[in-house]
Amino acid sequence: MSTGMARKSGDVALARNGRSACGRRRLSGDSTPAVRVHSRASRSERVRVTTRVVQWTTGNVGKESVKAIVANPELELVGCYAWSESKDGVDVGELVGIDPLGVAATSDVEALLGLRPDCVVYNPMWPSTDELVRILEAGVNVVTTAAFINGRRLGDDRDRLVEACERGGSSLLGTGVSPGFAELLAITVAGICSRVDKVTVSETADTTFYDSPETEKPVGFGHPIDNPDLPDMAREGTAVFGEAVGMVADALGVELDDIVCDSEFAKTTEDVEMASWTIRAGCVAGVAASWQGRVGARTVIDLNVRWKKGSTLEPDWIIEKDGWVITVDGLPTVTTSLDFLPPPDFQADTIEDLMTIGHIITAVPAVNAIPAVVAAPPGIVSYPDLNFPMPRGWVRQEPAPPGTKAD
């Protein structure tokens, strides 16, 4: 069965139980209006409908989510979950470094769900199935950046999420900048091709100043170069890219025979010191992983990353700039790059300040997806399930013509 035209059972439930006319699901016993409607006097007497949002955690990405929500006049921040006791009761504006918002963070989950939000912006470092089930079965939609695209690698936990969506009439979408937005851009680029042989998204980054051992050690950084478990670490630590391969296949209307991960590693010949940890000489300071979707022996999707720390790698990996290169081989072959730079008015006194750009581009794709997810059918959804034009039907089932990059 082609995943592009008929999605796997459980991905999206077609029933729209409990929805109001504007797309918000009403909770059992909810006698309050489904949305807040604000009138603003103007020549056209426009009516603005705001979407009620709860922010979940205020870490690096969560802070930028709050700022994006507050800056958007179509969104209303009504609550915030405090992960740590020290943040409980503190104004959310103070937590994220802006003016007070009159909204206090709380660790009381029932109180937050009792606010009847339309959507939770879920930004922990890693997802908790128990937390997500609790939110979804309460009838609240979720957009998340927590290492989740469609959950197809999660087994029973994915079934629990689908069932929670069905009980609550809610939707769950995972995104971020990569994987997430970069793959959406690749799908969009493929939309100008009358034949698609292969879609490649290549991410490169010098992460020397990115100090996050919680996310880097699991993929292999800092371990001895001769550790036999390194390929398994890279595969598990980057498994969300395998989910993204499936998402791109859905967009292309292709049924994959296999999704595989190839990896390679580079060691540092000198210690690499960071603020919170040190990678010792002889240990991994370069990790590359390539997640490939194959039809037969042919690779039609390749989502790959190459990350390095320091300048003493062996073998030496030259990374000229951070960002993404997207190539769609086909008719025509199209290449585009995704780079990011601070604007002229951006103020940064430290490396940590500059890292804010990365947090912004991770947070904002999820915030931008809120209206589409609120309006989506209940279930786990990804970009191909939303109302965007998809380049389906252009991947040939036979081998690519000679001379094309399809292996």
Largest sheet: 8 strands, mixed
Radius of gyration: 22 Å
Q: In terms of structural class, how would the helical and strand content be classed? A: alpha/beta
Number of helices, counting only DSSP H or I runs of 4 residues or more:
12
Percent range of helical residues: 25-40%
Q: Mean pLDDT, as a whole number? A: 89
Low-pLDDT windows of residues = 1-45
Percentage of residues in DSSP E strands:
25-35%
Categorize the overall geometry. globular
Distance between the termini: 24 Å
Number of strands: 17
* SSE ordering: EEHEHEHEHEHEHEHHHEEEEEEEEHHHE
Key descriptive features of the protein:
407 residues, eight-stranded mixed sheet, globular, disordered N terminus
Molecular structure report:
This protein is of the alpha/beta class. It has a domain at 192-341. It has helices spanning 60-71, 92-96, 109-114, 129-137, 156-168, 181-190, 213-216, 230-237, 239-252, 351-354, 356-368, 370-375; strands at residues 36-39, 47-56, 75-81, 105-106, 119-122, 141-144, 171-174, 195-206, 258-268, 272-273, 278-279, 284-295, 298-308, 313-314, 323-331, 334-338, 379-381. Helix 1 (60-71) crosses helix 11 and helix 4 (129-137) packs parallel to helix 5 (156-168). It is globular, with a radius of gyration of 22 Å. It starts with 35 loop residues before the first strand and ends in a 26-residue tail after the last strand.
